[in-house]
Amino acid sequence: MSWLSDLFFGSFAQWGGGVAHSVLILALVIAVGIILGKIKVAGISLGVTWILFAGIAFAHFGMKIDGHILHFVQEFGLILFVYSIGLQVGPGFFSSFKKGGLKLNMMALSIVMLGVLTTLTIFLLTDLPITTMVGIMSGAVTNTPGLGAAQQATSELTGMDNPDIATGYAVAYPLAVVGIIFTMIIFRYIFKINLEKEEQLALETDGGSKDTSARELTLKLTNPSINGMKVGEIHDLINRNYVICRMRDRETGEVKMANSETILHAGDDVQIVTSPSAAPAVTAFLGEETEVEWYQLNAKLISRRILITKPELNGSSLSKLKLRGFGVSITRVNRSGIDLVAHPSLNLQIGDRVTVVGTETAIGEVEKVLGNSLKRLEHPNLFPIFLGIVLGVILGSIPFVFPGVPQPVKLGLAGGPLIVSILISRFGPKYKLVTYTTMSANLMLREVGISLFLACVGLGAGDGFVDTVVNGGYKWIGYGILITLVPLFIVGIVGRTLLKTNYLTLTGLMAGSMTDPPALAYANESSGNDIPSVSYATVYPLTMFLRVLCAQLMILFLT
To answer: Residue 428: its pLDDT value, please?
Structure first.
């Protein structure tokens, strides 16, 4: 039975046996970690981070894998993980700085920088190396890509991995998750928060983060100044994004599609799709809200969602398609689960679902133009993924020389692919590059990447983990708590008292600035709505980018 012992505990006398052993151990670590990740205590779970702890346990008991295989799988897993994150956040990365998002991103930036300052202060007051402190910081802010960036930067500088980075991360991470949620609870009691009141205030003042989302309403035209004007002429009078998709004549009661040449009169009923922030202005100008059963009045006009699947339409604006010529109206565009107002300058992307109103025959013609073939989307677009990885590795390998820094600075295998994936997903459609991947495909890529990375990090750090914690490493837990709580309390208090930030928005900001899904899940569950998710999504892209960059720069400048 020696073969069974070699299979589990490793025998590298033969290359084939080493590969089989490595695959077995990696699969076991990931499987055990995923099972443990389903365990919840007080509704909180560490999720995939259990894979890291499973790897540490396996290595502690002698179940290790070859160092070369370990290093390759770790780096490749990291690339897959950060690249899929970039594809996800890229489309909203630049738009997140607009309007209300700018304030939220500045607050998130402050949390990141205060975390770095707290880490540097502890570094200067203790004798811990910067590699260990960056590991503790990454765990304290629950940011796995930052851990990967630190690991990769250290490897570039020294030619070898430093297990203390992963150890510091593993020690600080568990209480960091609890600490973020604890901060939300403390703030709720300090400021005597009424969740229902906060929700109402958030809905009343919203308009920055959801400015492009779509809302449907029916108006009775009461403004006499628009009597006899064309829809296109009326649209030019209001500087807002809205679409008049159908109208009911005041005299005949006839319901018909509306286009730019349709003439309206006071007393007509119109169906409008606009953004929540624009709705009050559009309503005030045109008339008053009313209720009309459009589908009962004209059964010939139907509404259908059509999928954009033709590659040649990727990046094209709605106005260029000239779909009005088919006798239909595009009322909204659903992208990644969010309804957008279908204004003429909106650029379409592969995977968008457009809501089309018209007759059965007309919609059938539009389907031929747009594609509407689900089978096309199920086929993975691998070219932009591997092209992006190639460009990301090249960008990450470019040395940048800074005065006073002994080694050239590189973005590395974490920063390079992340930046390229953000740029490709944001600007690729403009150059006819199809970057669309289904949510399930993106999630699968991301989860496979992070699972491989965490398993390898755990297996690499497991040898001396227990000894490190027993011989002074327990202090690292306290350092991690400080790095977690100090920035959140400072920015949270300033945001609530001086900037008058809504509590629900603030909880999403806290979770997003720490890139912590468990904290977001708690915020959503406790509030009973998705308001925290909006601010989380607003600050997540910039925060993720800064966490990765700061971890690398601290290693490169201070090692």
So the answer is: 74
